[in-house]
User: What shape does this take?
Amino acid sequence: MNGVALRMLLGDRAKYIGLIFGIAFSTMLMSNQVAIFSGLMLRTASQILDAREADIWVMDPRVEYVDEIEPMTDTQLERVRGVYGVDWAVPFYKGLTVAHARDGLLQQVILLGVDDATLAGVVPHLVLGAVENLKQPDAMIIDRAGFQHMWPGEPLALGKVVELNDHRAVIVGVSEASPPFTTFPVIYAKYSNAMNYIGRTRKQMSFVLVHARQGEDVHLLARRIASETGLKALTWRDFTWATISYYLKRTGIPVNFGITVALGFIVGAAVVGQTFYIFVLENLRQFGSLKAMGVANHTILRMVLLQAALVASTGYSIGIGLCAGFFEVTSRVSINLRAFELPWQVAVGTAVAVFVIIVIASLASIRRVMVVDPAIVFRG
Assistant: This one.
């Protein structure tokens, strides 16, 4: 019976290809948009994800997400260090400034100031140089995309000099920092140097990065820090989700991507449903013949489901392959697109959506097959 079902499906090549194309198009559109949306949302929390040593981020209670900075005084750092369960706590600065290259280029950059002694908060993977180079005088580390943006066409190199607020800074490392939501270059400097670049004020510390003692529950420690200091303390996961949630609530990004994903689903269901239904109608005589020969309804049901499964699996495989190929090509075209990729969660979620589409497409068809009269074979 399986062979008969496959011959029926492959007998009309045009409709078979149409079914495959409908599923492949829906798969690519949905997975592509969801993957880009996921990549954009992760970009909003890129600095949190790169500071891998920090278990907890401490900030002013009014801060809602990582780009909303309310400076704190340096005395708050000592208060956090005094909380039981804290292994170490270091200052962290985040802000925007303007970098002047010697060739006259003016570029706004994201400036991150890390603890002078531990350098905690620097992304660990560097393309050139070493994190320890940041302890040199006037040293800074720039991300690879930022370097290529400021010196387009030039090979990565150390020793480039820029000016930050009339202060000299020398590139001693090129990092693989996660791409930020904005496309500004990401620069790391020692906390003391960062303060010189922006000009010292009474309140200048953006965050306190905390590492918990071994065996300490980070959620309990975060609540303890908040209770004893009056500051907001969130684990890095909670702060990441708080940042993502802010952009989900305050921007139109989810709506725009959601509309595209919904259109992909609707178009896929409509095209595949209509084509599959017509395919079954045109093969009612064959199904009637099988019934006349004594083939049970449940066997015919398995035949229809096998046809639907073959169409779904083939179309999904082609669509998800095209989507993965799209991200592979675009990541090579521009380094700013390297964060857009196809995670397995998106692939699985799209597979579930395709399954729903093919179920919807099969329901009406299955009903017509179940009630078909075997006498249709003998009619003119």
